[in-house]
Protein backbone atom coordinates (compact mmCIF):
# COMPACT_ATOMS: atom_id res chain seq x y z
CA UNK A 1 0.00 0.00 0.00
CA UNK A 2 1.51 3.27 -1.13
CA UNK A 3 1.47 6.11 1.39
CA UNK A 4 0.57 9.65 0.38
CA UNK A 5 3.08 12.46 0.86
CA UNK A 6 1.04 13.68 3.81
CA UNK A 7 1.09 10.22 5.41
CA UNK A 8 4.84 9.92 4.84
CA UNK A 9 5.45 13.31 6.45
CA UNK A 10 3.29 12.35 9.43
CA UNK A 11 5.13 9.03 9.83
CA UNK A 12 8.53 10.76 9.76
CA UNK A 13 7.44 13.44 12.24
CA UNK A 14 5.99 10.83 14.62
CA UNK A 15 9.07 8.62 14.39
CA UNK A 16 11.47 11.53 14.95
CA UNK A 17 9.47 12.67 17.98
CA UNK A 18 9.37 9.20 19.54
CA UNK A 19 12.81 7.99 18.43
CA UNK A 20 15.35 10.81 18.20
CA UNK A 21 18.88 9.95 17.09
CA UNK A 22 20.46 7.52 19.55
CA UNK A 23 17.20 5.80 20.57
CA UNK A 24 17.36 2.03 21.08
CA UNK A 25 15.14 0.27 18.56
CA UNK A 26 14.38 -3.19 17.25
CA UNK A 27 14.54 -3.70 13.49
CA UNK A 28 13.10 -6.57 11.49
CA UNK A 29 15.83 -7.61 9.06
CA UNK A 30 15.35 -8.87 5.51
CA UNK A 31 15.45 -12.52 6.65
CA UNK A 32 12.67 -11.91 9.20
CA UNK A 33 14.92 -11.99 12.25
CA UNK A 34 15.04 -9.04 14.63
CA UNK A 35 17.99 -7.09 15.97
CA UNK A 36 18.35 -4.53 18.73
CA UNK A 37 20.29 -1.45 17.63
CA UNK A 38 19.95 2.33 17.78
CA UNK A 39 19.10 5.11 15.38
CA UNK A 40 22.01 7.08 13.95
CA UNK A 41 19.95 9.66 12.09
CA UNK A 42 16.58 11.31 11.99
CA UNK A 43 14.05 9.63 9.73
CA UNK A 44 13.48 11.14 6.29
CA UNK A 45 11.60 10.54 3.08
CA UNK A 46 13.83 8.82 0.53
CA UNK A 47 13.15 9.63 -3.11
CA UNK A 48 9.81 11.21 -2.30
CA UNK A 49 8.17 7.83 -1.66
CA UNK A 50 9.68 5.90 1.28
CA UNK A 51 10.14 6.79 4.97
CA UNK A 52 13.51 5.50 6.24
CA UNK A 53 16.12 5.81 9.01
CA UNK A 54 19.78 4.87 9.49
CA UNK A 55 20.69 2.32 12.17
CA UNK A 56 23.92 1.56 14.02
CA UNK A 57 25.84 -1.40 12.59
CA UNK A 58 23.50 -1.87 9.64
CA UNK A 59 24.47 -0.84 6.14
CA UNK A 60 21.96 1.33 4.31
CA UNK A 61 18.66 2.66 5.55
CA UNK A 62 15.60 0.77 6.78
CA UNK A 63 11.90 1.34 6.33
CA UNK A 64 10.26 2.96 9.35
CA UNK A 65 7.60 0.25 9.19
CA UNK A 66 10.32 -2.28 10.14
CA UNK A 67 11.67 -0.30 13.11
CA UNK A 68 10.07 -0.03 16.58
CA UNK A 69 11.24 1.55 19.80
CA UNK A 70 12.90 -1.04 22.07
Question: Which features does this protein show?
Answer:
three-stranded antiparallel β-sheet; 20% helix; 70 residues; 6 strands; SH3 type barrels; single chain; 1 helix; globular; alpha+beta
Describe this structure in words.
By secondary structure, the chain is of the alpha+beta class. The chain has one domain: SH3 type barrels, CATH 2.30.30. The strands form 2 sheets. Strands 2-1-6 form a 3-stranded antiparallel beta sheet, with no helix packed on it. Strands 3-4-5 form a 3-stranded antiparallel beta sheet, covered by helices on one side. A hairpin with a 5-residue loop joins strand 1 and strand 2.
Spatial strand arrangement across the major sheet: 2-1-6
- Taken in chain order, the helices and strands follow as HEEEEEE
**CATH architecture annotation name:** Roll
**Over all CA atoms, what is the radius of gyration?**
11 Å
Span between termini: 26 Å
- On the 0-100 scale, what is the average pLDDT? 96
Beta fraction of the residues?
25-35%
DSSP strand count:
6
Structural class: alpha+beta
Net shape:
globular
Largest sheet: 3 strands, antiparallel
Counting H and I runs of at least 4 residues, what is the number of helices?
Answer: 1
The CATH class turns out to be: Mainly Beta
Task: Give a short overview.
This protein is α+β, with helices and mostly antiparallel strands and 70 residues long. It has 1 helix and 6 strands, in the order H-E-E-E-E-E-E. The model has no long low-confidence stretch (mean pLDDT 96).
